[in-house]
Specification:
6-stranded parallel sheet; alpha/beta; Rossmann fold; about 220 residues
Length: about 220
Amino acid sequence: MSQSIQEDLRVIIAGGGTVGLRTAELLADRGHSVVIVEPDSKRADRLSDEYIGTVIEGDAARPSILRQAQPDRSDVVAALTDDEATNFAICMAAQRMADIRAVMRISEGEDDLYGEYVDGVVFPESLGARAAVNEIIVEGVRTLEDIGGNVEVVEVEIADDAPAAGKTLEEVRLPRGSLIVVDAEGNRLGGPETVLEPGNRYVVAVESDVMDEVMNLLRG
């Protein structure tokens, strides 16, 4: 499935552990559709209670289970289990089933050969969820820092047809709980006169409660 930077993505996440869950939460917060495939029944039940997205109980390395997640209707598969070989197998199977972007988590430093077969590699563990989201989304919005609590710092590319495109910050009136910190090149701090030029990138600090509203203004 072809990927447009201005449309919501449908993402299959294989593995509902710490990295998989946090990745799913970040994606769901940005309006993307998430399907989580998790083999452990108790963990799958807990994930279902989180109401992040669709949860399929089963091993995504099994083609019959992976097909239930419908790779042919998805934009990205992110294999984020704690087993590198399993993640690679999931990516290979998904790419055989559909035209889909494949991202895999690795366990011991980057192996250059993986880049010949998958579209993105996630490492190290401490940056797993944030790195996974950046590899999945690719363009448009990239997480720079997860400060903790409710605040996230993201780099946002202003979409051509976004409500805020071509307007100053004074005209846009971003919601309380958000702040344009600086343009992506670091040339100047955001102020009332800052123009949000389509195609340009800006660093934004935003509270999770208003993330959707801010993304609607900047991305459409």
